[in-house]
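Before a colleague's protein record goes any further, I have to sign it off. What it holds is a sequence and that sequence's fold in token form. Would you go through it and say whether the fold makes sense for this chain? The record follows directly below this note.
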Amino acid sequence: MVLLTEGRLGTFSSKTATSLIRYKGEAVVAVLDAAHAGKPLQDILEIGDGIPIVASIEETLPMQPTELVLAVATVGGFIPDEWRVLICTAIENGMDIVNGMHVFLNDDTEIRALAELKRVQLHDLRRPPVDIEMASYRSHELTNTRVLTVGADSSIGKMVAALEITDAARKAGWDADFVATGQIGMMIAGTGIAVDAVVADFISGATEQMVMERSHRELLIVEGQGTIVHPLYSGVSLGLLHGAAPQALVLCHQPGREFMRNAPVRIPSYADLIHLHEMISRPLFDTEVIAISLNCAGMTVDDAHNIVDEVHRETGLPVTDCVKFGCDPIIEALEPFRK
């Protein structure tokens, strides 16, 4: 893969690239970002040592790439106009395009014609399946354990927490599976539905469908999206909550973030977020926030330890940063749910 981040490379501004480097790094040959070309990737993302940052498609060709991944998630899911030349150049050189945006490349007459001429694939990951039905309120009847990662904001670590918890649970002996509900999770897992591209009435149905298909698994970790208190993303967050009907929630937050991304809204307290998620679920099913996963990216280990301890004292819940310190406190909190 070549990861296209042109002008947007950063831990939060290019979270698609960051996640693919973290979980699929062996398949990444380069990051395409002229603004940072030649710089050490690890200095920017804290990961990715040895992966070069280049300024052009042509520089990647000796590496024999097979895919160009549009590796950012823009507000509204648009493809920047200046990226068209880069996309077409990649197609001209025989590369498939992996697109996680809301704008579909297969609907672009010029790009689709070029792809057909060069016999390459355009993968529009956010195009929803055609067979999604409305929810039938069945997932709450399942006897397995379902965990949903919920957030204080968007782009705060819900997917990473879900992936890390899934891996830790498997190592602890659970028959666990990760349920991808966004385009980045789909790139990593190879399955899933980007629920933010599903018609609103069918979001909970799409989630329920994925959960029911995996009902034989002992533990399902469902990737959260947005937050129920964000004015832009609350609809998809609530649809996920109702469709998955989780018995347990893991609240994700980034210490120091006071206002929501893309909205002038102050993030509520831990206590308020816990109360809101538990109360909004109660008319349909019982659930509880069992732990907190912090995103301490950019912090020293000592500072991260201090904030973990501080949040534990404030909430009384198990707290960790799954990347820096592992998921053991969360796995221990799940033990009472084990059949």
Summary: The chain has two domains: 2-124, 139-337.
